[in-house]
Design goal:
This protein is an all-beta fold. It is about 0% helix and about 35% strand. It has two domains: about 40 residues, N-terminal domain of TfIIb (Single Sheet); about 55 residues, SH3 Domains (SH3 type barrels). The chain has no helices and 13 strands. The mean pLDDT is about 85. This is Alkylphosphonate utilization protein.
Length: about 110
């Protein structure tokens, strides 16, 4: 029998391998294998909706209509936002949107242009 690591959560010895994850059938916990070569999700940084790494000064395109809180304005799909700044927090992009003004966006609603 192969030597698989025990579950780090419940210490069960009945873990099994499922792709790049180990799975515990007793508690349902999943964790990554150590052999996972260069997974992009492990690299630090802010990522767009397609998984591309964003940097300060990039230009991004909005992929979904976004209502502006406290206003009747809407940022339409396809709006290009130039010269973004990355910040910490839930809304991790600080920018100026033409016709609306300064605002913060979530990186999950933009793609790199």
């Amino acid at each position: 029998m192969s030597e698989l690591p025990p579950c780090p959560q419940c210490q069960s010895e009945f873990s099994y391998e499922d792709g790049v994850f180990f799975v515990c059938p007793e508690c349902g916990h999943e964790w990554k294998t150590e052999e996972d070569p260069g997974n992009a999700a492990d690299e630090p940084g802010v990522r767009d909706a397609n998984g591309n790494t964003l940097a300060d000064g990039d230009t991004v395109t909005v992929i979904k209509d976004l209502k502006v809180k406290g206003s009747s304005l809407v940022v339409k799909v396809g709006t290009k936002v130039k010269n973004i700044r990355l910040v910490e927090g839930d809304h991790d992009i600080d920018c100026k949107v033409d016709g609306i003004g300064p605002m913060k966006l979530k990186s999950e609603f933009v793609k790199k242009a």
